[in-house]
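SAMPLE LOG
Freezer: B-3
Tube label: C17
Construct: single chain, 287 aa
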Amino acid sequence: MAYRCKNDEFWTMEFISDGCYEITGYSPQELNESGFIRYGNLIHPDDKVYVWEQTQKAIQNNKQFELEYRIVTRNNRIKWVWERGVSVDQTEGKQIIEGFISDITKRKQAEQGLIESEERHRTISNLIMDFAVAIHLSDEGKIAFKWVYGPFKEITGYSQKEIENHNGFLEILHPEDKNILVVELKKLKEKREPVLVEFKILKKTGEIRWLKGYGNTSQDNLSLLYFAFQDITDQKNAEFQKIKLFEDLLESEAKFIAFMNNLPGYTYIKDDQKKTSICEFVSQNFS
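STRUCTURE (predicted):
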Protein backbone atom coordinates (compact mmCIF):
# COMPACT_ATOMS: atom_id res chain seq x y z
CA MET A 1 0.00 0.00 0.00
CA ALA A 2 1.21 3.50 -0.83
CA TYR A 3 0.87 6.27 1.74
CA ARG A 4 1.59 9.88 2.64
CA CYS A 5 1.63 10.69 6.34
CA LYS A 6 2.68 13.24 8.91
CA ASN A 7 5.80 12.54 10.93
CA ASP A 8 3.99 12.34 14.26
CA GLU A 9 3.56 9.63 16.86
CA PHE A 10 0.30 8.46 15.25
CA TRP A 11 1.64 8.41 11.66
CA THR A 12 -1.43 10.41 10.69
CA MET A 13 -2.31 9.51 7.10
CA GLU A 14 -3.01 12.28 4.59
CA PHE A 15 -3.34 9.64 1.88
CA ILE A 16 -3.41 5.83 1.89
CA SER A 17 -4.15 3.50 -1.00
CA ASP A 18 -6.83 0.81 -1.16
CA GLY A 19 -4.23 -1.87 -0.48
CA CYS A 20 -4.42 -0.97 3.19
CA TYR A 21 -7.61 -3.01 3.60
CA GLU A 22 -5.95 -6.30 2.61
CA ILE A 23 -3.01 -5.68 4.94
CA THR A 24 -4.69 -4.10 7.97
CA GLY A 25 -8.40 -4.91 7.68
CA TYR A 26 -9.20 -1.18 7.72
CA SER A 27 -10.36 0.89 4.75
CA PRO A 28 -8.58 4.07 3.61
CA GLN A 29 -11.45 6.12 5.04
CA GLU A 30 -10.99 4.53 8.46
CA LEU A 31 -7.23 5.04 8.48
CA ASN A 32 -6.88 8.56 7.09
CA GLU A 33 -6.71 11.67 9.28
CA SER A 34 -10.49 12.03 9.36
CA GLY A 35 -11.01 8.37 10.31
CA PHE A 36 -11.36 6.80 13.75
CA ILE A 37 -8.08 4.82 13.81
CA ARG A 38 -4.48 5.88 13.29
CA TYR A 39 -1.85 3.71 11.64
CA GLY A 40 0.43 4.27 14.63
CA ASN A 41 -2.11 2.43 16.79
CA LEU A 42 -1.67 -0.67 14.63
CA ILE A 43 2.08 -0.98 15.16
CA HIS A 44 2.88 -3.80 17.59
CA PRO A 45 3.66 -2.38 21.07
CA ASP A 46 7.05 -4.11 21.13
CA ASP A 47 8.04 -2.50 17.82
CA LYS A 48 6.78 1.08 18.27
CA VAL A 49 9.98 2.49 19.75
CA TYR A 50 12.09 0.75 17.10
CA VAL A 51 9.97 2.12 14.23
CA TRP A 52 10.00 5.65 15.63
CA GLU A 53 13.74 5.74 16.35
CA GLN A 54 14.73 4.34 12.95
CA THR A 55 12.51 6.70 10.97
CA GLN A 56 13.65 9.76 12.94
CA LYS A 57 17.27 8.82 12.46
CA ALA A 58 16.79 8.52 8.70
CA ILE A 59 14.86 11.80 8.48
CA GLN A 60 17.53 13.68 10.44
CA ASN A 61 20.17 12.39 8.03
CA ASN A 62 18.00 13.08 4.97
CA LYS A 63 18.05 9.40 4.07
CA GLN A 64 15.52 6.85 2.91
CA PHE A 65 14.56 4.21 5.47
CA GLU A 66 13.60 0.55 5.24
CA LEU A 67 11.99 -1.30 8.14
CA GLU A 68 10.51 -4.66 9.00
CA TYR A 69 8.11 -4.72 11.93
CA ARG A 70 4.82 -6.14 13.17
CA ILE A 71 1.32 -4.72 13.11
CA VAL A 72 -1.92 -5.87 14.76
CA THR A 73 -4.76 -6.06 12.23
CA ARG A 74 -8.46 -5.39 12.73
CA ASN A 75 -9.11 -9.04 13.65
CA ASN A 76 -6.16 -9.00 16.12
CA ARG A 77 -3.93 -10.99 13.81
CA ILE A 78 -0.22 -10.16 13.97
CA LYS A 79 1.38 -9.50 10.60
CA TRP A 80 4.89 -8.64 9.51
CA VAL A 81 5.27 -5.70 7.14
CA TRP A 82 8.12 -4.19 5.17
CA GLU A 83 8.15 -0.42 4.79
CA ARG A 84 10.23 1.92 2.69
CA GLY A 85 9.82 5.66 3.08
CA VAL A 86 11.46 9.05 2.79
CA SER A 87 10.80 12.55 4.10
CA VAL A 88 9.66 14.76 1.20
CA ASP A 89 8.60 18.16 2.65
CA GLN A 90 6.92 19.88 5.57
CA THR A 91 3.30 20.77 6.31
CA GLU A 92 2.34 22.92 9.28
CA GLY A 93 5.78 22.42 10.78
CA LYS A 94 5.60 18.63 10.45
CA GLN A 95 7.76 16.51 8.20
CA ILE A 96 5.79 14.61 5.57
CA ILE A 97 6.73 11.03 4.74
CA GLU A 98 5.85 9.18 1.59
CA GLY A 99 6.40 5.50 1.19
CA PHE A 100 5.16 1.99 0.57
CA ILE A 101 4.19 -0.84 2.93
CA SER A 102 3.85 -4.51 1.96
CA ASP A 103 2.84 -7.68 3.82
CA ILE A 104 5.84 -10.02 4.38
CA THR A 105 4.19 -12.35 6.90
CA LYS A 106 4.54 -15.47 4.75
CA ARG A 107 8.21 -14.77 4.14
CA LYS A 108 8.84 -14.26 7.86
CA GLN A 109 7.03 -17.47 8.72
CA ALA A 110 9.09 -19.35 6.14
CA GLU A 111 12.31 -17.84 7.54
CA GLN A 112 11.31 -18.77 11.09
CA GLY A 113 10.41 -22.28 10.00
CA LEU A 114 13.80 -22.64 8.32
CA ILE A 115 15.61 -21.34 11.40
CA GLU A 116 13.73 -23.75 13.65
CA SER A 117 14.40 -26.62 11.24
CA GLU A 118 18.12 -25.83 11.13
CA GLU A 119 18.29 -25.49 14.91
CA ARG A 120 16.45 -28.78 15.35
CA HIS A 121 18.77 -30.54 12.91
CA ARG A 122 21.85 -29.03 14.54
CA THR A 123 20.66 -29.93 18.04
CA ILE A 124 19.85 -33.52 17.10
CA SER A 125 23.16 -33.88 15.28
CA ASN A 126 25.11 -32.55 18.24
CA LEU A 127 23.25 -34.74 20.69
CA ILE A 128 23.20 -38.12 18.99
CA MET A 129 25.58 -38.21 16.08
CA ASP A 130 29.07 -37.38 14.99
CA PHE A 131 28.80 -39.40 11.80
CA ALA A 132 26.34 -41.81 10.21
CA VAL A 133 26.85 -44.76 7.90
CA ALA A 134 24.76 -47.09 5.81
CA ILE A 135 26.20 -50.61 5.99
CA HIS A 136 25.49 -53.60 3.80
CA LEU A 137 25.92 -56.81 5.77
CA SER A 138 26.20 -59.91 3.60
CA ASP A 139 25.08 -63.37 4.70
CA GLU A 140 28.77 -64.23 5.08
CA GLY A 141 29.21 -61.36 7.55
CA LYS A 142 31.15 -59.06 5.22
CA ILE A 143 30.58 -55.35 5.80
CA ALA A 144 30.48 -52.81 2.97
CA PHE A 145 29.81 -49.08 3.33
CA LYS A 146 27.03 -47.71 1.11
CA TRP A 147 27.51 -44.12 2.23
CA VAL A 148 29.06 -42.09 5.04
CA TYR A 149 27.80 -38.76 6.41
CA GLY A 150 29.74 -36.50 8.76
CA PRO A 151 33.36 -36.25 9.95
CA PHE A 152 34.18 -39.95 9.60
CA LYS A 153 37.73 -39.26 8.40
CA GLU A 154 38.43 -36.76 11.19
CA ILE A 155 37.46 -39.33 13.82
CA THR A 156 38.95 -42.51 12.31
CA GLY A 157 41.73 -41.10 10.15
CA TYR A 158 40.43 -43.08 7.17
CA SER A 159 38.38 -42.05 4.16
CA GLN A 160 35.51 -44.24 3.02
CA LYS A 161 37.61 -45.46 0.09
CA GLU A 162 40.52 -46.35 2.38
CA ILE A 163 38.20 -48.34 4.63
CA GLU A 164 36.87 -50.29 1.66
CA ASN A 165 40.44 -51.04 0.53
CA HIS A 166 41.37 -51.93 4.11
CA ASN A 167 39.16 -55.04 4.14
CA GLY A 168 36.24 -53.20 5.64
CA PHE A 169 35.24 -51.42 8.81
CA LEU A 170 35.95 -54.43 11.01
CA GLU A 171 39.67 -54.04 10.33
CA ILE A 172 39.88 -50.77 12.26
CA LEU A 173 38.11 -52.18 15.32
CA HIS A 174 40.24 -52.76 18.37
CA PRO A 175 41.09 -56.50 18.55
CA GLU A 176 39.36 -56.76 21.94
CA ASP A 177 36.07 -55.43 20.55
CA LYS A 178 35.71 -56.97 17.10
CA ASN A 179 33.28 -59.63 18.26
CA ILE A 180 31.13 -57.04 20.05
CA LEU A 181 30.16 -55.25 16.85
CA VAL A 182 29.82 -58.44 14.82
CA VAL A 183 27.37 -59.89 17.34
CA GLU A 184 25.30 -56.69 17.43
CA LEU A 185 25.20 -56.43 13.63
CA LYS A 186 23.94 -59.99 13.31
CA LYS A 187 21.40 -59.40 16.06
CA LEU A 188 20.19 -56.26 14.30
CA LYS A 189 19.83 -58.02 10.98
CA GLU A 190 18.08 -61.07 12.40
CA LYS A 191 15.77 -59.52 14.99
CA ARG A 192 15.12 -56.23 13.18
CA GLU A 193 15.30 -54.36 16.47
CA PRO A 194 17.44 -51.27 17.22
CA VAL A 195 20.75 -51.85 18.99
CA LEU A 196 23.06 -49.68 21.08
CA VAL A 197 26.72 -50.64 21.23
CA GLU A 198 30.01 -49.21 22.55
CA PHE A 199 33.40 -50.29 21.25
CA LYS A 200 36.96 -49.16 20.58
CA ILE A 201 38.61 -48.45 17.24
CA LEU A 202 42.21 -47.89 16.23
CA LYS A 203 42.73 -44.66 14.33
CA LYS A 204 45.08 -44.56 11.40
CA THR A 205 47.62 -43.03 13.81
CA GLY A 206 47.24 -45.96 16.21
CA GLU A 207 45.33 -43.89 18.75
CA ILE A 208 42.47 -45.66 20.53
CA ARG A 209 39.05 -43.99 20.22
CA TRP A 210 35.75 -45.00 21.79
CA LEU A 211 32.55 -44.96 19.72
CA LYS A 212 28.91 -45.36 20.69
CA GLY A 213 26.66 -46.58 17.89
CA TYR A 214 22.88 -46.62 17.51
CA GLY A 215 21.79 -49.03 14.79
CA ASN A 216 18.54 -49.66 12.94
CA THR A 217 17.45 -51.49 9.81
CA SER A 218 16.14 -50.46 6.42
CA GLN A 219 12.48 -51.23 5.86
CA ASP A 220 13.10 -52.09 2.22
CA ASN A 221 16.41 -53.94 2.28
CA LEU A 222 17.00 -56.59 4.94
CA SER A 223 20.77 -56.41 4.45
CA LEU A 224 21.00 -52.60 4.76
CA LEU A 225 21.77 -51.31 8.25
CA TYR A 226 21.93 -47.70 9.40
CA PHE A 227 24.21 -46.56 12.22
CA ALA A 228 24.69 -43.19 13.90
CA PHE A 229 28.03 -43.04 15.72
CA GLN A 230 29.20 -40.71 18.45
CA ASP A 231 32.80 -40.27 19.55
CA ILE A 232 32.67 -40.81 23.33
CA THR A 233 36.42 -40.95 23.94
CA ASP A 234 36.48 -37.91 26.24
CA GLN A 235 33.55 -39.28 28.21
CA LYS A 236 35.22 -42.67 28.59
CA ASN A 237 38.54 -41.14 29.63
CA ALA A 238 36.73 -39.12 32.31
CA GLU A 239 35.07 -42.32 33.57
CA PHE A 240 38.42 -44.12 33.65
CA GLN A 241 39.99 -41.24 35.59
CA LYS A 242 37.25 -41.47 38.23
CA ILE A 243 37.76 -45.23 38.53
CA LYS A 244 41.54 -44.75 38.82
CA LEU A 245 41.06 -42.09 41.50
CA PHE A 246 38.76 -44.39 43.45
CA GLU A 247 41.23 -47.28 43.18
CA ASP A 248 44.06 -45.00 44.32
CA LEU A 249 42.00 -43.97 47.34
CA LEU A 250 41.31 -47.60 48.23
CA GLU A 251 44.99 -48.43 47.87
CA SER A 252 45.94 -45.47 50.07
CA GLU A 253 43.46 -46.54 52.73
CA ALA A 254 44.80 -50.12 52.66
CA LYS A 255 48.36 -48.86 53.05
CA PHE A 256 47.30 -46.63 55.93
CA ILE A 257 45.56 -49.50 57.73
CA ALA A 258 48.61 -51.74 57.26
CA PHE A 259 50.89 -48.98 58.54
CA MET A 260 48.83 -48.32 61.64
CA ASN A 261 48.49 -52.02 62.46
CA ASN A 262 52.27 -52.37 62.37
CA LEU A 263 52.86 -49.54 64.82
CA PRO A 264 53.97 -50.79 68.28
CA GLY A 265 51.11 -50.52 70.73
CA TYR A 266 48.40 -49.51 68.21
CA THR A 267 45.89 -51.32 66.06
CA TYR A 268 43.44 -50.02 63.43
CA ILE A 269 39.90 -51.31 63.85
CA LYS A 270 36.86 -50.96 61.53
CA ASP A 271 33.63 -51.83 63.38
CA ASP A 272 30.39 -53.28 62.01
CA GLN A 273 28.96 -49.81 61.49
CA LYS A 274 31.78 -49.00 59.07
CA LYS A 275 33.21 -46.44 61.47
CA THR A 276 36.96 -46.39 61.93
CA SER A 277 39.04 -45.68 65.00
CA ILE A 278 42.56 -46.08 66.31
CA CYS A 279 42.71 -47.98 69.59
CA GLU A 280 45.65 -48.18 71.92
CA PHE A 281 46.74 -51.75 72.40
CA VAL A 282 47.69 -52.65 75.93
CA SER A 283 49.83 -55.75 76.12
CA GLN A 284 48.97 -58.43 78.59
CA ASN A 285 52.47 -57.85 79.92
CA PHE A 286 51.20 -54.54 81.30
CA SER A 287 47.91 -55.83 82.63
